[in-house]
Amino acid sequence: MDKYTARFSGHQTFPLRYGWLYKFYHTSKLTDFDSMTPEDLMVEWGVGKNMVDGIKYWAGRVGIYDQAGDSKVSDEYFQIAQQDEHLENISSLWLIHWLLCRDVSELTTYRIFFNYYNGQTVDKESLLIFIKELFTTKKFESNTKKQSILQLPADNSLTKDISTFFLTYARNKTNKVSEDSFSSPLSELGLLKQFDRQKFLCELELRNTLSDQVFTFALIDYFSMLSLKGSTTTMSFDSFLLNPGSPARIFRMDQVEVENRLERASELTSGLIGWTDTQGLRQIQIKNISVLKNKNAFLAKIYK
């Protein structure tokens, strides 16, 4: 049975901002990075202590460094840093979104929303209620010795995390996003669209800016993570649509688009990923395990 941890704090209520991930990545290349104190980072980055915590939080969630604090740049972010330092390519933003949300073993508001929430509209109050009901229903087994069932933090902490989620993904009223603004780059993805002062649309729809290459990489990455758990390399279409951690969930795509994307993923991988949709049989199959072992080679194709 899967075990879980929760992380509803650490960002100091700062949403992800332009330049932060590369700022951390660039600093992590310094020879004395491991010995740098928060005060050193305040000077290096020209920000206050709370913002240092925020930068480290988002870098950790994307996978630029591991939870122990050691410098460990993920292959995925390395490609972004090398190819698109300023996040000018929308594919970089979709990739960062995938990296943020794929690890469902550590629960955050954004991971819960993109992996469990089925509604077509959302606001802060409804999301708070949903998260509480989810924890009551699922009874997530804790990965800590302190408790057997994972517990939510106090409402105040949870509400702050929910607010940070909206700041990270919701487009501002002017619809202007720039590197010099305080807007989160992930608001460009259009996953949360403002409906009125409090409510946002989060419909399953066509993701026109999501390239087939990013979707296919996420598909390979998803099955790669499942294989590490000893899971099968075959999955029904319904399971792929509904299972937490799947690209269909995280990218909030409608059923028809997922079908089309799977067909194109099969073409892009020369049939190594099989998509069957005949005579009532609908399934995805990894036909050759080599496609999972070579996922980083496919990652590089995103920027070609």
Automatic annotation (TrEMBL):
<protein>
    <recommendedName>
        <fullName>DUF4007 domain-containing protein</fullName>
    </recommendedName>
</protein>
<dbReference type="Pfam" id="PF13182">
    <property type="entry name" value="DUF4007"/>
</dbReference>
<feature type="domain" description="DUF4007">
    <location>
        <begin position="8"/>
        <end position="303"/>
    </location>
</feature>
<dbReference type="InterPro" id="IPR025248">
    <property type="entry name" value="DUF4007"/>
</dbReference>
